[in-house]
Write a structure and sequence with these properties.
By secondary structure, this protein is of the alpha+beta class. 46% of the residues lie in helices and 23% in strands. Bound molecules: guanosine-5'-triphosphate. It comes from Haloplanus vescus.
């Protein structure tokens, strides 16, 4: 059974900082945000986790394999190298959205995202023992996106199609199962999910096709960390390509 550890990363008091002493150049903010995400992705990734940029001022990471000291080091290193600091809320649950809700509550109880006094909060308890099915990752991909969109439409119209598919899928998995889906570039969506069977994925894919006409396939993997589960999912997705199937489940990868 899954036991997903999620960390909410929130930049402290970022809104006021972006306009103090006057509005800062937008491309400077974009550079800061994308570099901070890159550093967090690298830090978490080197320890077997996955990080997702979501809204950039708030990011979500799957941190099975990272303990409290790792989280403290991430905060220290960020504070040393950036003009902003980050607060971290950690929680663990079989259902990803429940874990994220608890991680979020830890930070909300410590104060507002725009509270000048609330800085570098570290709240919540990482998982004690691990198992090889703690994390489930579903890696979705749009069928023939290159032929249908990239090679035929302008980039904006391709983007609309992909984003429509993403919006429909993210809502469906969130509402039906508590799964959290993240757009990761190109035509790819990675979802952190609870234990779901192939039928649940098939009906999610059918729902997206019926609602917005975007065809998806998915590889699903489980593992001790997001990296292990994600690699198993990528191999399962390759199986979909070989077999022409829309769902492949790959239970574990060591
Ligand atoms: N983040 C991420 N992006 C990927 C990955 N594989 C492919 N992409 C992105 O997806 C785009 C399209 O590649 P594919 O999905 O292989 O192409 P396709 O035309 O949809 O072909 P099929 O998936 O075989 O139907 C690429 O340009 C990349 O941006 C991956 O493993 N991770």
């Amino acid at each position: 059974m899954t036991n997903t550890q999620l960390t909410l990363v929130q930049i402290d008091n970022y809104g006021p900082w972006t306009v103090t002493p006057e509005p800062r150049r937008e491309m400077d903010l974009q550079t800061l945000q994308s570099r901070l995400f890159a550093d967090i992705a690298q830090f978490v990734g080197h320890r077997g986790g996955y990080a997702f940029f979501t809204r950039f001022d708030n990011m979500v990471a799957v941190t099975n394999g990272l303990d409290a000291d790792d989280h403290r080091l991430l905060q220290e290193s960020t504070g040393n190298r950036y003009p902003v600091t980050v607060s971290l809320g950690i929680a663990v649950d079989a259902n990803p959205v429940v874990a994220l809700e608890q991680a979020t509550e830890h930070l909300q109880h410590a104060g507002s995202a725009q509270d000048r006094e609330r800085r570098e909060v570290l709240a919540g308890t990482p998982v004690e023992a691990s198992a090889d099915d703690d994390v489930a990752i579903a890696h979705f991909d749009v069928n023939d996106a290159t032929e249908k969109y990239t090679d035929r439409l302008n980039e904006f119209d391709s983007f609309i199609q992909i984003e429509q598919g993403y919006a429909t899928l993210m809502r469906h998995l969130r509402e039906e199962h508590g799964g959290l889906s993240f757009f990761v570039g190109g035509d790819n969506i990675i979802a952190v999910t609870p234990d779901l069977d192939a039928d649940a994925y098939r009906s999610a894919i059918d729902h997206v096709e019926e609602t917005v006409g975007v065809d998806l396939k998915v590889g699903v993997g489980q593992g001790e960390t997001a990296h292990d589960a994600g690699m198993a999912a990528k191999h399962a997705l390759e199986e979909c390509r070989h077999r022409g199937t829309v769902v492949e489940m790959n239970e574990s990868e060591s």
